[in-house]
Amino acid sequence: MRERTSWHRRLLAGLLTLATVAVTAVAGAPAGAAPAGGRNYVAISGSGSTWSENALQAWRAAVRQQGMTVNYSGGGSTVGRNNFREGTVDYAVSEIPYGLEGDGSTRKYAYMPIVAGGTAFMYNLKIGGRRVTNLRLSGEVITKIFTGVIKQWDDPAIKADNPGLNLPARRIVPVVRSDGSGTTAQFVIWMNSQHPGIWRPYCTSMRSATQCNVLSFYPTKPGSGFVAQPQSNGVSGYVAQNHAEGAITYVEYSYALKNSFPVAKVLNSAGYYIEPKATSVAVALTRAEIAADLTQRLDGVYRNADKRSYPLSSYSYMIIPTEPEAGFTQDKGYTLAKFAYYFLCTGQQSADSLGYSPLPKNLVQAGFRQVERIPGAVREDIKLETCHNPTFAPDGTNLLARDAKDPPACDQRGPTQCAEGTGGARQATPTGNGGGNNNSGGTGNQNAGGTNNGGGNSNGGGTNTQNNSTPGTAGPSTGGTPQFDPDTGEVIASGDGGGGQFVAGVPVSLDDEGGWQLRHTMMVLAALILIALVVGPPLLFRRVATAAGGDERGRR
Q: For residue 216, what are the contacts with CB-CB under 8 A and spacing of at least 6?
């Protein structure tokens, strides 16, 4: 009897111990796991750019499966630089360096390029109820739109860029960043460099001449019809909403892909309208000048005469600590260095699918040298042939730039226009192409039977109801579509709820990692043990009681 009871108690104690171990493993497995070398990772945190945030978030999720906890908050490049200076984060990410706007940091740091990409112009425009996906814009037109000079989509200058489209008489709603933004700064630098005669009169009416060389906060005039939204998700999410027809914003190409919206093809120096794909960005950046501190000078990129290049291409940078100060320890440096080795090589494989362009060989090698400056970093002897970066071959050849295809003839400035879609909206938009019939099958004839800009008849298959609206107005609200102010783009009436899906461009992350992992197995095991603990003891005690009763009867 005592032996049975003792055995049952030992079994119960063993189950309790096993359950405790399993629950502890589940709670502790994701964080602080030791890598192959045996040294533990510690959590690190950073903040800054939303331009490159989509790449950062993908890389964070990937290394978490290796036991690394890398936190990141995309509040804008200005926030990131300020947070790093104040010592509240371990690293920052920014499109522009310290000093351009009079800021600086006494904390010791270095710059490390992390990814390339194109600043795109995501827009929301329809003709006869059908979304336009093949818009083309010159740099001059873009600058005039974002300085309030061009206010209507049917402006003659926009028509000249788009000979195959019958553009609507709809007010343009420029959407700009309301927060300190590296994306804004890069856009301003480009306008100031390439179109100063348009940009500077606008800017200097609100800011000093020096400030107008580069600004992280976009200047807007009251009553100008501009809309300001925070962060990349804010501007792209605004443009993607149903009520924002007529809106256009500047944002990294990745956000257009995420929102399934088109971007404008931008005219380059060779006279071709180009989309900011990975290949066109890689070609453009072959003319980037890289300073000794790895910061970028992009005048050669803006004027790159290669017909395949996208003018507004640039790099994003991580600001890394080079001294163990402001709470940054050797252990944090070890984790940050391992993370950097990952995204400089393997992480670049996801750049294209995310809407970015992977780093070229010279910047990957420069990145390796910067990693060694991080306190606590353990140097890894990574060879180019084992780096797994898709930009370059083992011999260092820039594969993206080498293999980039020439644009089609219909993308050249002239009387024809390609119909294929762009960004996250690949469906074609029928075009008149200057001299041919536009058999758009119901897309609508903007001029209700008039001629197209190139001189050919446009058989659109129906009239466009927007012709009932006066220029600059939104037109009647039908089918529950929200009404909006044509000057600001803000909603002034919500409609009856029947206007279709309301698209919000703010992503919701349900899980940073995908796939079945160790902790999932441990969770199942812990659940089974806990069930055994609940069900097992009554069964055990019942068996003990039954056995004890049998022994007592036997003694009688």
A: 76, 77, 78, 96, 101, 180, 181, 182, 184, 185
Q: What is the pLDDT of residues 127-146, one digit of tens each?
A: 999 999 999 999 999 999 99
- pLDDT tens digits, 322-375: 999 999 999 999 999 999 999 999 999 999 999 999 999 999 999 999 999 999
As a whole number, the mean pLDDT across the chain is: 82
Tokens of 229: 């939204």
d(CA 262, CA 61): 27
3-state secondary structure 116-176: EEEEEEEECCEECCEECCCCEECHHHHHHHCCCCCCECCCHHHHHHCCCCCCCCCECEEEE
Provide Rg for the chain, Cα atoms: 30
What is the helix (H) or strand (E) element at residue 238, kind and residue range?
Answer: helix 231-239
**Taking residues 214-234, what's their average pLDDT?**
97
Q: Which residues contact 141 (CB under 8 A, 6 or more apart)?
A: 150, 157, 158, 161
Q: What is the mean pLDDT of residues 235-259?
A: 98
Ordered DSSP codes for 55-99: HHHHHHHHHHTTT--EEEE-S-HHHHHHHHHHTSSSEEEESS-TT
Instruction: Among 229-233, 316-320, 450-454, name the one with the lowest average pLDDT.
Output: 450-454
Answer for the pair 197, 143: CB distance below 8 angstroms, yes or no: no
Give the span between the Cα atoms of 485 and 196, in whole angstroms.
Answer: 31
* Beta pairing class for 109-123 and 91-94: unpaired
Give residue 459's pLDDT. Answer: 37
Instruction: Please name every residue paired with 218 in a beta bridge, in sequence order, or none if there are none.
Output: none
Q: What is the pLDDT of residue 366?
A: 96
Beta bridge partners of 111: 319
Stretch (H or E) spanning 530: helix 518-555
Residues of the chain above pLDDT 70, percent: 71
Other Cβ atoms less than 10 A from the Cβ of 257: the count is 20
Whether the Cβ atoms of residue 473 and residue 461 lie closer than 8 Å to each other: no
DSSP 302: H
Distances (CA, A) of 71 to 222, 241, 340, 357: 38, 30, 14, 23
- Interhelix angle 330-344/53-64, rounded to 10 degrees, is 110
Per DSSP, the three-state class of 297 is strand
pTM (two decimals): 0.75
Q: List pLDDT tens digits, range 355-364.
A: 999 999 999 9
Q: Are 231 and 76 in contact (CB under 8 A)?
A: yes
Buried b (16+ CB within 10 A) or exposed e, 494-527: ebeeebeeeeebeeeeeebeeeeeebeebbebbe
Q: Which of 207, 401, 185 is nearest to 296 (CA)?
A: 185
Instruction: Judge whether residue 470 has pLDDT over 50.
Output: no
